[in-house]
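This entry is listed as follows:

___
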Amino acid sequence: VQLQASGGGLVQAGGSLRLSCVASGSIFRVNAMGWYRQAPGSQRDLIARITVGGSTDYTDSVKGRFTISRDNAKNTVYLQMNSLKPEDTAVYYCNIYNMSWRLRPYWGQGTQVTVSS
């Protein structure tokens, strides 16, 4: 299983970042994918998800600011993050989305996003 997230960094509040995640073709082509984040001392949360066909859904805290997309030919899922806030600071991960996502054993290394005020 390959889940390689990248694109994080340090950005000022109000700025933008675009995250990318390359996944194994065997899991990417047939699964909905999600972006998740985990802040220090907090549980990992789902923030955006996208079906194979491109339907999307977002948690309220990022709705209108973040956009998830996928390129099925490249086995890659993206997260465009605009109007970033300090509370968006976290390690961001991608993974398969389904009802048992919390039980997934492998998450890759994630990518750190730090938003300064």
In short: The CA atoms of residues 8 and 113 lie 5 Å apart. The chain has a mean pLDDT of 95. The longest helix spans residues 25-28.
